Amino acid sequence: MSLTEEPAVPAPAETAPFVPAKVTIDRTVRLPSITFCLARHQTGSRVFCGGADFGLHSFDTAAEKPETKPLSETRHSSYVTGIVSAGGMLISGGYDKSLIWWHAETGQQIRRIDAAHDRWIRSLAVSPDGLRLATVADDMRTKIWDAVSGQCLLTLEGYDQLTPHGFPSMLYAVCFSADGKRLATGNKTGKVLIRDTDTGTIQQTLEVPVMYTWDPKARRHSIGGIRSLAFSGDGSLLAVGGMGQVGNIDHLEGKSRIEVFRLPAGERMHEIEDSKYKGLVEKLQFSGDSKWLLAAGGDNGGFLSAWSMETGKLLAQEKVGNHLHAFEMLDDRRLVTVGHDQAALVTLSAG
Amino acid sequence: MSNRRLIPVPSDQLLPSSVSRRGFLGGSAIGVGGALAADMHAVNGLRAEEIAGELRRGEKHVILLWLAGGASQLETWDPKPGVKTGGPFAAIPTNVAGIQVSELLPKLAQRMQLTAVIRSLNTKIADHGRGADLVERGRLDDPGLRYPDLGAVVAKELGRLESTVPDYVSLYTSTEGRRKGTSGFLGARYAPLFLAENMAPPNSALHEKLTASEHQDRAALRDLLSKRFTAEHRGSTVGSLNSAYQRVQGMMASAGLFNVEQEPAEVRARYGPTQFGEQCLIARRLVEAGVPFVKVARAWWDSHGQNFETHLELCADLDHCMSVLLDDLQERGLLEKTLVITLGEFGRTPGINASLGRDHFASAWSCSLSGMGIRGGVVHGATDAEGHTVVDGEASAADLFATILQAVGIDHTHEYMVGSRPTPLADFGSKPIRSVLV
């Protein structure tokens, strides 16, 4: 296990709204495999992650030397791509199309739905009250589940199965609004649907076509897609993450890209393309006051960036290991990231 | 009978008109007329004893589905689910007990009785250019000697007398990794009719100011004058020119083979909406018309980033189009006379990089052979648990080249005499993979 042992930087006592100006990596933790998803269970310091070894693992972010340990001997049968904490349980989903409910402490499997979707499950989200689970998959369906009972409440269509060029499409991203009343989803070709969570009715459609690159001539396939979504706390903004247009689609060489929309008008408030870091924006989260937006992702390398929502300008940025797939806030300044092969404990500071 | 064939013929030695017109055409990327002039010097005289063999050549065909850029063996023919290098895809059973392929090939999995998979290619060269050179030719060029690629060898060996269709057609419409193909020491007459920008031969249409009837009248007049001239001037040159003109007319007449709109709508729908589907349909039309070798390049599999997303797209295309192609060939009685190959310049690394990509890898990868001469439902060779090395039945590019030739009835040990140098069709020491051959 690789571990740096610098202690976390204590958060200074401040009363003014916190605006990050610096990103500091406090510790890194070697992960057992490529890790795609991360969840913090309730308010504890232990986080749970899943990835390419088909299993779930946990580590204690408060430990002096965090070490991963498997949650259970039971595993998915393909990559684990989503994990959430809900109703005192953990729920994971993956490319094996299944959902598994777990006891977070014992690792006991509580429920398993083997055919939750017809194709790869790409992402999970849980409503703020922990009662509903949303899943998106490459069957191009969005499903809303009772997070406690496992009952499927809604199955929602709205996306084409194929891209305009005749290839299978993908439905990558999903998130709830802070009040739990709206659900946003995003697909490969750059279509965002915002729905009423109770009825599934589509309230709004947004288009971010720049995030889908189709190469019609040189390589004749595509890359990109909407990989992350986040509502601001008051629900007035929706951030969409992905990658700008790509010249050579053999690589993740497009500029990382975020588009921020003002709701319900649907007007584009910011178009942010990173001039320094390339690749996909895999995770987005607004600050509690919605004044800034935290983004993580990467190409081969990973990045963590904070953007002002007032100006659209960069506030703070740091290379963080290899390609980042997810992060979870531990408090308003500390977070944990997971990526290709390592986790990092990170502190945001005012400078 | 000697198994050596003399290749370079002095440029003043022209072919008897009764033997072949093929030699006057070839590199038709420059147009039919241009090829005519360009290839005159490269004409090869077939020896008398070969004429009988020529006549015995049945209609045999090869369709090479060239997976340009290098498809992942782990996401196609050699899945390793559940190991660190295996990726997210499951292995699925096929209709042949004991053989599994990637879940990305569900339709081909149900046609496994037609296909032999070779999982043990070790071609060593993992850069695009040289890797393609090696795989396409079965060996690398020697100093001063450029070898013909598979298409050129098949064109020479299986091309028919009096054929009015091209012997070697190569479709490569994407630009990345585009390769025209080479006939090497066989000369330009065996170079491919190379279609890059359009899916029809250039300069093959009638001149816009000429009607079909006028075109026929002109041909008849030319024929008449030619006969008069021949009666007074004996010699092979005139005969050769006659043959060439007939071939040009044949080529112009066969231009419709490239027009898929001549197919019933249900057939086109069956192949699907993608360009690769259309090109597979063209390949079927060409072999049905007697073309010995058709290469359809499907670029671009070079998935350094997002390997799994790339293969979700491209394997869906391959699985559907190749399945329809096999069915169509079989229904028309052509599959027993046609070898269908999937092959690229190399495979992809077992290791998955931070961009979720796989990089170039030539040490342990796969290809498939279906149809003519192939023992279907067979897997040859094996790689280790994580796919890093070949552990059984290692095969080289030369072995694969020899296998393909043997499958379509060409003796890979036959030698061309290149000057005074005997040069076997497949490289010295190559061994056909007998387990995949009938």
Model description:
The complex is a heterodimer of chains A (351) and B (438). Chain A has 351 residues and is mainly β. Chain A has a domain at 123-349: YVTN repeat-like/Quinoprotein amine dehydrogenase (Methylamine Dehydrogenase, Chain H). Helix content of chain A is 0%, strand content 53%. Chain A has strands at 22-30, 35-40, 46-51, 56-60, 69-70, 80-86, 89-94, 99-103, 109-113, 121-126, 132-137, 142-146, 152-156, 171-176, 182-187, 191-196, 202-207, 212-214, 222-224, 228-231, 237-243, 255-262, 267-278, 280-286, 292-298, 301-308, 314-322, 324-329, 334-339, 342-349. In chain A, strand 20 and strand 21 form a beta hairpin. The model of chain A is unreliable at 1-5 (pLDDT under 50). By secondary structure, chain B is of the alpha/beta class. Chain B has a single domain, classed as Alkaline Phosphatase, subunit A. Chain B has helices at 32-39, 48-56, 106-109, 128-137, 150-158, 212-232, 236-254, 265-271, 275-288, 307-331, 397-407; strands at 4-6, 61-66, 91-93, 100-102, 115-121, 168-171, 193-195, 293-297, 338-343, 347-348, 360-361, 365-371, 378-380, 382-383, 390-392, 415-418, 421-424. In chain B, the strands form five sheets. An eight-stranded mixed β-sheet of chain B has the order 7-6-8-2-9-12-5-13, with helices on both faces. In chain B, strands 1-16-17 form a three-stranded mixed β-sheet, with no helix packed on it. In chain B, helix 4 packs parallel to helix 11 and helix 9 runs parallel beside helix 10. Residues 8-49 of chain B have low confidence and may be disordered. Chain A binds chain B through residues 33-34, 52-54, 77-79, 95-96, 120, 138, 165-168, 170, 217-223, 249-253, 279, 298-302, 322-323, 339-341, and chain B through 69, 81-82, 84, 88-90, 174-176, 272-275, 298-300, 302-306, 309-310, 312-314, 316-317, 352-357.
The main β sheet of chain A shows up as: 4 strands, antiparallel
Percentage of residues assigned to helices of chain B: 25-40%
Q: Give the amount of beta strand of chain A, in percent.
A: over 45%
Q: How would you spell out the order of helices and strands of chain B?
A: EHHEEEHEHHEEHHHHEHEEEEEEEHEE
Helical run tally of chain B = 11
Oligomeric state of shown chains: heterodimer
Poorly predicted spans of chain B: 8-49
Return the CATH architecture of one domain in chain A.
7 Propeller
Q: Bin the strand percentage of chain B.
A: 15-25%
Main beta sheet of chain B: 8 strands, mixed
Please tell me how large the radius of gyration of chain A is. 19 Å
* Average of per-residue pLDDT values of chain A: 95
Q: Which structural class should the secondary elements of chain A be placed in?
A: mainly beta
Through-space gap between termini of chain B: 25 Å
Q: How far is the first residue's CA from the last residue's CA of chain A?
A: 31 Å
> Under the CATH scheme, which architecture of chain B would be assigned?
3-Layer(aba) Sandwich
pLDDT average of chain B, as an integer?
A: 85
What is the helix fraction of residues of chain A, given as a range? under 10%
Largest interface: A-B, 40 and 35 residues
